UniProtKB/TrEMBL annotation:
It comes from Acetobacterium bakii. It is a multi-pass membrane protein. It is found in: Cell membrane. This is Sodium:alanine symporter. Belongs to the alanine or glycine:cation symporter (AGCS) (TC 2.A.25) family. The chain crosses the membrane at residues 6-26, 141-161, 173-198, 210-229, 241-264, 309-332, 352-376, 396-417, 423-443. InterPro entries: Na/Ala_symport (IPR001463). One of its GO terms (cellular component) is plasma membrane.
Amino acid sequence: MAVVNNFVWGPVMLTLLVGTGIFLTIRLKFLPWRNLGYALKSIFIKPDKTKKKKRGDISPFQSLMTSLAATIGTGNIVGVATAMVLGGPGALVWMWISALFGLSTKYGESVLAIKYRETNEQGEMSGGPMYAMKNGIKIKWLGSAMAILFSVFAVAASFGIGNMTQANSISNAVYGTFGVPTWITGLIITGLAITVLLGGIQSIGKVCGIIVPFMAVLYFIAGIVVIIINFENVPAGIAEIFTMAFSPTAIAGGVGGTIIASMLSAMRWGIARGVFSNEAGLGSAPIAAAAAVTDYPSRQGYINMTGTFFDTLITCSITGVVIASSGVLGSVDASGNLVSGVNLTIMAFQSALGPAGGWIITIGIMLFAFSTILGWEYYGEKSLEYLIRAPIAIKIYRFVYCLVTFIGSTIALEIVWDISDTMNGLMAIPNLLCLLLLSNVIAKECFDYQERIITPERLTRKALRNK
């Protein structure tokens, strides 16, 4: 399984992921970059009710929070630290580069999700890459086959990377910090998951609309405090990040150890962990975008695009700069092995905050991982709904999903990581093909929205300023 996983997340796949982002960025004339400020403002602006009839289940803000709930997870704490150990501090730069092009990818897949979404028998919105494939690709048999494959991979990934691995991270973190047995933590997580998930997307959207902003602000403030306390080391840390991003071979060191990494390893691990963290191109986030109340596909496309900005360019950056400026990168444990993953991040926060740093990371993992469980349940549910048009199947799925949460909390299943990681990566193949095949549709929606909405709004603001 490891061999398959290495291929799925190997150079070919990473090139396809980033290459699609580069292609769409150029195809859209860099509008996702140029309109990032507009996109950030749009998060808190409600669509004009008088212009066009709105359809959807949750608000644009709740849709973004549900998407962020599934993307901002343990990858922002564990994944960044792992990338900086395996690829050196320079991996952070390649995370940023992949995220910049990922803005266009996330915009494009969200636009297609809104444009081709359908209304199910319960009156709820159903959308995502599978519906774009089915309704948008002209060769019907190809579109249908791609849609089925994507849905199967998404359902499988929801139980693994979206559930078991997250629950396991929570229970282990709580046990390590507070000594609470994993089965007790598992019962609590399962009970909370049942309470939220049985209420459907409205319940998920409301809870994520509270948890995600809270956890993001808490982690951001704590990270900034650590950076301020370690401020003397920040310039050297940032210099090391950029130096090792483009050096043929460079060395970084911390307490008792060194990290040797090349530009190629920094690129590989930075892009891999960046894509894994923000999920741009995997096709998961558009499923949440399709549930949003909106009047134009591009409006929600821009709003959901900011998920990549918040996830990688903000949250991952905080983790990366904290580690780089703390002096702990390259530390070794009692066995002489390099400290990596969550333990490295905890060491970085503890370097400035003491024991409180460990508590903050534990709380962060709890909130990050639990919100990921909620977001991924919705992704899996909608993917299953595409495969099986029976309401009873969805109810069974929700119940089984919650039970799997308890299993993940109490049993360390290494093979689950490999299988779910592979399924997560395989989702990207049909999704990226869909984006390339429907790039003209994405471009038309983008340019039309620019001409109808964004340009007139900017001209109006300019005229008012001139008065």
